[in-house]
Design a protein that fits this description.
The complex is a heterodimer of chains A (295) and B (327). By secondary structure, chain A is an all-alpha fold. Helices cover 51% and strands 1% of the residues of chain A. In chain A, helix 2 packs parallel to helix 13, helix 6 runs antiparallel to helix 7 and helix 8 runs parallel beside helix 10. The chains are: A mainly alpha (295), B alpha/beta (327).
């Protein structure tokens, strides 16, 4: 069995009777895992029934305002909403649920303020993106996820997208790449993180001029040569794919990463699914197509 | 070519260690004992296990106490970078602590962390060098950012947090050791045993960075977390600490010490004195409700004066402005 089939098999085994997917093999349904599994299995093309059940589960836990939180008790931790929005748009029959997630994203965001003369932070704190959790600042990865959800709905020109693009470019480090979301603090330049850089490039692919992120693409390309951990590798490949690049060895790297479970133990469902998506979404996550949802 | 052990190192929970041991991690343990040990270690190639063993002996941590216990070592791995020994708890310290605790009869030792800035926990393990040590020594790792959680009461209630969401694994272990790094901190003044507990707060609830805690009040959050989740023991890696713009962008500060004790507050106060800071001027230590005056702490091992190594601070950082020891 090739690794991709094995990964799909492992993913399918994580499905719970109610349609959700656990973060781990025997876990309770987890929204982010469910959404990622649905996306991965949909792209792998042979398990429509599981994808529909997964989206039904996500729709069943969607709150009236459209958000999907990490668990009902933690409604403020709503970052899975963006991933669910992508899943809803990919799988026909969930247009209403998708629209609610998009409306939630468009009407919510991080805490922002005009920094005035305060030089504590190097970035423009007034530019809105999205946070991991309510009533906190916007950070690179949740903003990238929300941007990808909006892009799947062809909302590239929406005002929130324009502001998010501005925020992401403002947070880009001068030497290339992105930290989790700061540039300088007390005048010290922070260091790029490959997973954050990969998310940002995946979200910005083809919506800004390449020259504006060229150093970041170079940085990610270089870093990926030596990184085989599933989160950064998957997102790194998706980030480069968004710019029309795919390392020649990408497929073998993904296989190697999958096989590293022998060392690290079974990956969680999100990581497994992201490996599959990175293998199959050859043009990047923003290009995997939607079902025509508009808001 | 070296072979990795068959047993995998990353665990979703603590399967096989046993459940139902009670809520020991939430109880104060030996909180009335204020002895602190300082041991010398010139570098990470030194016999660190011997230093830690000496510390345990001096602090009366023996086989009777450790035998059969399920131990969780919580390092500081906030933002690893290859080759940067001053940012994170060195894996050699973890290896030594695990070795000594197992030799004292611990039922098992796990390492658990929820990296504060980086979401790729496996990359954090690899870039910090922790992965290699855990594989070689067959020590399981639990990613606290994604582990199952429980809610506990915010007993102190200083921050705006109505309750604290913490990893459920904390109720499955009965000896929690904060294995922190000796560093300055641009928001809190210093980051030592107490601040290290930010790393137990799960990222999927609090974010990367754990920005909820910043908005809720960093100092207040440190105190709330430490009141709800009490460490049983604290070890601070000051072999190579960080001075200047800690906890990430500072420079190496080779203090050459390992500081240990049962009470995080007094361990951290002693670390401050080693670093040339006044612990009473560090907000969270001043407000911790523990007597941290030098005379109240039973100092074991090296004397503070013989190992003191003033850490540099940054002018213009408010949290640094007042902590320099003047007498």
């Amino acid at each position: 069995m090739d690794w991709l089939s094995d990964a799909a098999r492992q993913l399918k085994s994580r499905a719970t009777p109610g349609g959700g997917f656990g973060l781990h093999a025997s876990g309770e349904p987890d929204p982010a895992s469910t959404a990622w599994a649905a996306i991965a299995l949909c792209l792998s093309g042979d398990t429509r029934d599981l994808c529909v059940k997964a989206c039904r589960h996500l729709a069943s836990i969607q709150l009236p305002d459209g958000r999907i939180s990490v668990a009902p008790r933690y409604r403020h931790s709503y970052w899975p909403t963006s991933i669910a929005a992508i899943a809803f748009q990919l799988i026909p029959g969930f247009e209403t649920a998708a629209q609610k997630t998009l409306e939630f994203l468009l009407s919510n965001g991080g805490l922002h303020w005009n920094r005035g003369t305060d030089k504590t932070y190097g970035h423009d704190t007034s530019l809105p993106g999205w946070p991991w959790t309510a009533e906190t600042h916007s950070w690179v990865e949740p903003t990238a996820l929300a941007m990808l959800a909006l892009r799947c709905a062809s909302l590239d020109k929406h005002q929130r997208m324009r502001m998010a693009i501005a925020m992401m470019l403002d947070r880009q480090l001068p030497s290339g790449g992105w930290n989790y979301g700061n540039t300088t603090v007390y005048g010290n330049m922070l260091v790029a993180a490959p997973e954050s850089t990969a998310h940002a490039l995946a979200a910005l692919g083809r919506v800004v001029e390449r020259s504006r992120v060229a150093k970041s693409i170079d940085l990610l390309r270089t870093e990926l040569e030596s990184i085989r951990t599933p989160l950064t590798l998957s997102w790194g490949i998706m980030g480069l794919a968004a710019w029309g690049e795919r390392p020649k060895a990408a497929d073998s790297w993904l296989e190697k990463s999958f096989l590293m479970q022998e060392r690290y133990g079974a990956y969680d469902t999100c990581l497994l699914a992201q490996l599959v998506v990175a293998r199959l979404a050859r043009q990047g996550l923003a290009e995997i197509g939607g079902n025509g949802v508009r808001t | 070519m070296r072979k990795w052990p068959r047993r995998t190192i990353v665990k979703a929970g603590l399967a096989g260690v046993g459940v139902g041991a009670g809520w020991y991690a939430f109880n104060h343990f030996g909180a009335d004992r204020a002895s602190v040990f300082i041991g010398r270690a010139a570098n990470y190639q030194a016999d660190l296990a011997k230093v830690i063993e000496s510390g345990f002996k001096e602090l009366d941590v023996g086989r009777e106490e450790i035998r059969g216990r399920k131990v969780l070592l919580k390092p500081n791995m906030v933002e690893p970078r290859v080759g940067m020994e001053h940012v994170n708890t060195n894996p050699a310290i973890i290896r030594a602590a695990a070795q000594v605790l197992l030799s004292l009869g611990a039922k098992n030792v796990i390492v658990a962390e929820g990296a504060g800035h980086r979401r790729d926990s496996l990359l954090v393990l690899e870039q910090s060098g922790m992965s290699e040590v855990l594989c070689e020594d067959r020590i399981p790792f639990v990613d606290l950012n994604s582990a199952p959680v429980i809610d506990v009461e915010n007993v102190l209630g200083l921050s705006r947090l109505p309750y604290l969401t913490v990893p459920a694994i904390l109720r499955e272990v009965d000896f929690l050791v904060s294995v922190a790094k000796m560093k300055t901190h641009h928001w809190a003044g210093v980051t030592l045993s107490m601040k290290n507990l930010f790393g137990i707060m799960p990222g999927r609830i609090y974010g990367w960075p754990k920005n909820v805690l910043h908005w809720a009040g960093i100092i207040e959050s440190i105190l709330d977390i430490n009141a709800a989740v009490k460490t049983h023991f604290a070890i601070v890696d000051g072999v190579i600490g960080m001075e200047g713009d800690g906890p990430i962008m500072g420079t190496p500060a080779p203090a050459g010490v390992i500081v240990m004790g049962r009470q995080a507050e007094t361990v951290d106060a002693t670390c401050c004195r080693v670093m040339g800071f006044d612990p009473d001027s560090v907000d969270y230590l001043a407000r911790a409700g523990v007597n941290i005056t030098e005379s109240a702490i039973d100092q074991r091992g090296e004397e503070i004066g013989t190992v003191a190594r003033p850490f540099s601070l940054i002018e213009g950082i408010p949290a640094h402005a007042k902590i320099r020891r003047t007498s």
